[in-house]
Amino acid sequence: MTEPRLLCLCGSLRKGSLNRKLMTVAAARFDGSFEEGDLRLPLYDGDLQEAQGLPEGVARLAAQISAADALLIACPEYNKAPPGLLKNALDWVSRAEGQVLEGKPVALVSATAGRAGGERTQSILRWMLQPLRAEVLTHPEVLVGPAADAFDASGALVSERFQKAVDALMARLTAAAREKQAR
Ligand SMILES: Cc1cc2nc3c(=O)[nH]c(=O)nc-3n(C[C@H](O)[C@H](O)[C@H](O)COP(=O)(O)O)c2cc1C
After folding, report:
1. What is d(CA 102, CA 13) in angstroms, rounded to the nearest whole number?
2. Relative to the CA of 145, which ligand 1 atom is closest?
3. 78 C-alpha to center of ligand 1: Å?
4. E strand intervals along the chain
5. Tens digit of pLDDT for each residue in 171-182?
6. Is 5-182 assigned to CATH 3.40.50.360?
7. What ranges do the domains of the chain cover?
8. Residue 39 — pLDDT band, cuts 50, 70, 90?
């Protein structure tokens, strides 16, 4: 069996993103290969799609999702909800040929300024993924907050508790990806 492939998506574009740091820490614990998808897509526009089909970036992202055995989504919390960047990407890929997210194991992680670590944003993201038929892992929840001091200079998680939760989640994601490969 080939090694499972993980596609990582980060809901923050900024260079110093804490969610990208968390995503990087988590992806390193996946037993397989990984790459990051680019969410810098145009805003969803039905006229654009009708005129020229899926934009190149959307087609690339949909193909990456399709080829992946599992997804890891790092989801910031903006006003208690996921950023528009992620919703836009999900709306676009839902217009691609076939159901690219159907049956795809997905793990969620989040890092926030607030103490709750993104509990509300993750819950809403779960609802957002439901119509796309993704199989979102339910536990353990990786909710890193307050995240400002959660990483050391090398990008590692300072707290053993958070690192253990990441390890357990990524072990489950690897197992789910292998199961999917075997189906
Ligand atoms: C528009 C906006 C809304 C935010 N709303 C929340 C919030 O509801 N809860 C929270 O804990 N942090 C909130 N924050 C702070 C973010 O958690 C913090 O900036 C975090 O570092 C953003 O993720 P990033 O580092 O991956 O870019 C908000 C930040 C922005 C820019």
Report:
1. 26
2. 11
3. 5
4. 5-10, 33-36, 70-74, 105-111, 135-136, 142-144
5. 999 999 999 999
6. yes
7. 5-182
8. very high
